Amino acid sequence: MGTSFGRGGATTFQQDLANADCILIEGSNMAECHPVGFQWVMEAKARGAKVIHVDPRFTRTSALADIHVPLRAGTDIAFLGGIVHYVLQEEKYFREYLLAYSNAATIIAEEFADTEDLDGVFSGLNREQRSYDTQTWQYAGSDMQAASGERDQEWDERTGEGSSVSEAGRGEAHGSGGAEVGAEPEVDVTLQHPRCVFQILKRHFARYTPEMVEQICGVPQATFRQVCELLAENSGRDRTSAFAYAVGWTQHTVGVQYIRTAAILQTLLGNIGRPGGGILALRGHASIQGSTDIPTLFNLLPGYIPMPHAHTNEDLDTFVEAEGTEKGYWGNMKSYLVSLLKAYWGPAARPDNDFCFDHLPRLTGSHSTYETVMEQLKGTCKGYFLLGENPAVGSANAKMQRLGMANLDWLVVRDFSLIESAMWWKDGPEIESGELRTEDIATEVFFLPAAAHTEKDGSFTNTQRMLQWHHQAVEPAGDARSDLWFTFHLGRKIREKLLAATMEASTSDEQRERDRPVLELTWDYPTKGETAEPEAEAVLAEINGWNSDAEPLESYEQLKDDGSTACGCWIYCGVYKDGVNQASRRKPTTQQNWVAPEWGWAWPANRRILYNRASADPDGKPWSDRKALVWWDAEEGKWTGHDVPDFKVTKAPDFEPDEGATGPDALTGTDAFIMQADGKAWLYAPAGLTDGPLPTHYEPQDSPFPNLLYPQQRNPVRQVIRHKHNRFQPSGTDPGSEVFPFVVTTYRLTEHHTAGGMSRWQPYLAELQPELFCEISPELARERGLEHLGWATIATARGVIEARVLVTERLTPLKIQGRTLHQVGLPYHWGQNGLTTGDTVNELISLSLDPNSHIQETKAAACDIRPGRRPRGPGRAELVRQYQHRAGITPETGTEV
């Protein structure tokens, strides 16, 4: 969504689902995984909205939907692409909206060649390097660059100096916006030019017919047409449809392109920025959104500012030149970055030292979690912190996670319980199988008990970009401490040791210079209580920022590039407006309008619906009274309405910028997508994605079927991590693929939480879901001799697990390419520890990643299933080897472009 619209967060908020006329839930079991938010879906249904649930399994969400559409896991691009084809062919798109707010009319360079021309790949593919050169994807007449955070690959051309980092962390930069456009692009408002985006889109999706959807996805044509008609009928000038998705879309080798297809569809239908419309990215738990805003991601700084790369001769201005844009709000990147540097280093950050820009770490490549595991196995990563993570259960190829940790010098685990990632050295699967011996493991493991959220102050930033403050209810028991306490006091002790070292005569000048970035950090937060817990509100105040008079800032519009403002995260600026914690507001909904702006605080600027300029027509009038959100008040000379306008409040609809204007001042009065350098929603992404400007259906890494749409079987630039414990399977019609004839998909349960660390130790939750199970259809049970409540062994080329059998009609056999496909559903919460134990489903999953986000493909794989329990001891690994031998698997299997 960052590449499509300019920001990576949900475009709308959960309560607004109640205003939708149709809701498509796909890649999510919202009723069970987001039950609080699902109440707004039910309110919409009570008002007459149609609810569509697309999912391999029939779930509680399906039971409450008007239509449940079972489909083959891993084929959502074909399904959504079929809807795009329908909308274009039947002319159901919102033409006036498209012309005003999208790049439909923009003309693409002559050099571009589509998948239709090149047998399923785009122009610019370098097969040896498994990457695309995006130069041929650009707008005609524009000198474009990659999206912010990805421009490393074009560094030399952009700055004229410096050395490229060949394996830099690239890809969809989690909300860093689209590409720099350069010159004003050529357009054809008639939408007839053969190289305009609209015509390219029509050609690209022409083969995504209902017949093709049926053959690829297993969705009957009549059902598919019903979905198309419901979405089209409930979108347009007077009606809007909303999409909701979760990790069922993201965890694929083409996961980013799943969401791109939804973005294209919602733009065509005119549903972005409008009440009851938009795309809601349902986050996995309370502050997943917050952990990307103020990031735990290796390639970002707070507020989606890209992390600098390890170039030579790089200074602050060079970085801003390479990463900023001329037009739109990323034109103010220097103000955002300088304010961040002032928050980090305070008085030490001055104009004469580039505001300590050199103190920032530099990327030398991709440092995602899975690359880190490979570095552990190589012996180059010596230490590892796990804070609220349990990779021995929750990460793909769990065996490699444990083997990586077994090769560390030290490991710090902070959690509520002795999770598997703290105990693998004693009772992990490799100890049982004899592949590891406790006495041979040199890793020193430190377990530190963590405080629960009820035992500390702090904020959650949830699904809808909303910060909500929670207050400490009780003191943490025993030695348990909050993450804030741990981070603050660890930093304090490190600084004390470094400071003492600077006083020693034996310390070299080089060492003192190396330690300066840590010693000069602003690290003076007030503490409270016997445990010296840092004041969380003081951290929030720093994130909000202040001016040179120490007065809290009200808006990121106030940020300066001269060092007079400090702000820890520019998109959060305003959360501590007037010195008041805006995130702690709890005004009842009966005392405010339906947007409820005084319940918590949403970034940016407390806007609840992003891109809401598009809720009005180019003249500033609502598309319809029924769907009014914000509108231009000519008498007052400003925008007004129910929500905070997502642009300058005084910018008139007919505003045209002066020649040479930059930043926000260069946006016209109809540029609704203010983070994009052309102000438009992108149906076509000329840069910013590593695997194509348009979504394309590719089969999952391991698939029992060939790609019917193109000769290209898989995403050609997917990440495949090669290792003897990460073997891939034959796919499609390749010999050996018949060894793994079924599709397995993973999911979560209401009663358990992610990797189980918070739930498997709770007696009531353990009683509600006491064992790992596999859901299978009655037909598959008969075919493989599986008994209800008996045992089954599920196998892939990476591992085998056992699970109780749940025979249920919730899983429907599908007719795919002339044969019956059975799917196996597995909840992924179990591990070896806790009150309820079981095998880890992630033993089955490979390290094959989306090339943009580096996320694993856990939602679609090929497997075998057989009756009975798996072998114990060395027999478990031997069974995996037997499967690999039967399928003819070699180190090269599945790694081809």
Automatic annotation (TrEMBL):
Pfam families: Molybdopterin (PF00384), Molydop_binding (PF01568). This is Formate dehydrogenase alpha subunit, selenocysteine-containing protein. GO terms for cellular component: cell envelope. GO terms for biological process: anaerobic respiration. Belongs to the prokaryotic molybdopterin-containing oxidoreductase family. It is found in: Cell envelope. InterPro entries: Asp_de-COase-like_dom_sf (IPR009010), Formate_DH_Act (IPR048158), MoPterin_dinucl-bd_dom (IPR006657), Mopterin_OxRdtase (IPR006656).
